[in-house]
Amino acid sequence: MTENNIISMDPEVMGGIPVFKGTRVPVQNLIEYLEGDDDIDDFFDGFPSVSRKQVIGLIEQLDEMKEKLLAVS
After folding, report:
1. Which end of the chain is less congested by CB atoms within 10 angstroms, N or C?
2. Is 29 exposed, middle or buried (CB count within 10 Å of its CB: 0-12, 13-18, 19+)?
3. Which residue ranges make up each domain of the chain?
C-alpha cells in the first residue's frame, strides 16, 4: 500500500489533519492508542472504518522513516 492509499489530507475533511484515507479517523488516534499501550483490537473496535491493511501499511512506513532518520544521525 502506498502512502496515498493510507493517509489523506484534505482541508475539507477534518480541517486537513492527516486521516486514514476514506475515513474521518485521524492518524493521531492510532498513535495515541499505541502510546497508551492500548490493545490494537480496541482501536479497530472503536474505528471500524480503518482497515488492518491501512494500519500495517502506516506502521511499516513509520518504521522506514525512523530507519532513514537514524541512518542520518
Report:
1. C
2. middle
3. 3-72
